[in-house]
Amino acid sequence: MSKRAKRALVTGITGQDGSHLAELLLDKGYEVLGMVRRTSTVNWERIGHLQDRITFVHGDLLDQVSLLTILQEYQPDEVYNLAAQSFVPTSWQQPVLTGEFTALGVTRMLDAIRTINPEIRFYQASSSEMFGKVVETPQRETTPFYPRSPYGVAKVYGHWITVNYRESYDLHATSGILFNHEGPRRGLEFVTRKISHGVARIKLGLANELRLGNLDAKRDWGYAGDYVEAMWLMLQQDSPDDYVVATGETHSVREFCELAFDRVGLDWEKYVVVDERFFRPAEVDLLVGDASKARRVLGWEPKTSFEELVNLMVDADLALLEGKLQGIS
Ligand code: NAP
Ligand code: GDD
Question: Residue 298 falls within a domain, yes or no?
């Protein structure tokens, strides 16, 4: 009898990482189940090109019954839990909802796995935001957490409940502590995409300024397409564990601006306006990761440099907006 293809359930499939991970898993011959929430209009912009190759299943991290039903009905081999309220500023406006999705949602999924089939391998999308006001640089798996937002606090809960279910029930539950990763599919509200999209708008005469918050914040920015490979590699290991995934380089928002405006031959200082509205109640000033464990154990390494990332994002937004302009002319 022929063996069936491996089956993976991806929560958050409509998001940036979900779309990249779905591509990777389909390329590897997986049957991909994409968990989506019911919406009045379909928001499959990032996965439109994969729509016919994914099996969509309706569920919500707030709804335990939906998770149990999906696992029972489809019997996945692997679950990638990417769904979350992922925008840090929103977590101050909706702290309780952020906790429900981003923290308790993880327990709901882990407990559904424990109940239906404890052999399922589980990946939790943990975050460098957990390091927050960093107590050590660079940050690694053993660095203590000091979250600085309700989102960061919720992710710390998600991380520890993953470790706890691993230790309590012997689940193959892994936590990937990913540093910021970006690309043309990034939501428009995150700073890198806000800049690349803003630069393209200015270049095409659609805007004349770009309003930003703290230009001094530093992040370890990688390319999302590279990072989803690390998620998959983690679930192929014999034992579950925690892994930092990062480039090991840090750059400020200001540097991102400089490079992005340079790409289209403009001087960033003429267009960027610092606006208090985009400052946060508590800031994460500096993130830089040490991914040596991921390199050593998983054989993973980032392939896209910081400059390549900035350029590919600006180029993609220029092409996107030029296409839209041609469509209306
Ligand atoms: P994203 O683009 O914001 O996508 C979030 C996804 O979660 C969307 O598909 C969204 O669905 C879904 N979702 C939200 N609430 C849900 C709920 N209650 N039930 C089911 N689905 C829900 O995020 P991303 O950048 O791809 O990040 C993926 C994951 O990695 C997130 O958990 C994020 O916190 C974490 N992370 C991201 C980074 C990064 O730099 N990108 C770094 C570290 C960790 P809708 O389309 O229906 O809203
Ligand atoms: N969004 C935004 N908008 N951020 C700005 C702006 C602005 O206009 N101006 C400056 N920033 C600064 C923020 O203050 C922050 O220090 C930095 O840019 C990055 O902000 P975001 O791009 O919103 O990302 P984040 O680092 O807060 O969170 C992202 O990365 C985490 C991993 O560390 C998200 O993807 C999280 O979901 C993820 O866990």
Answer: no
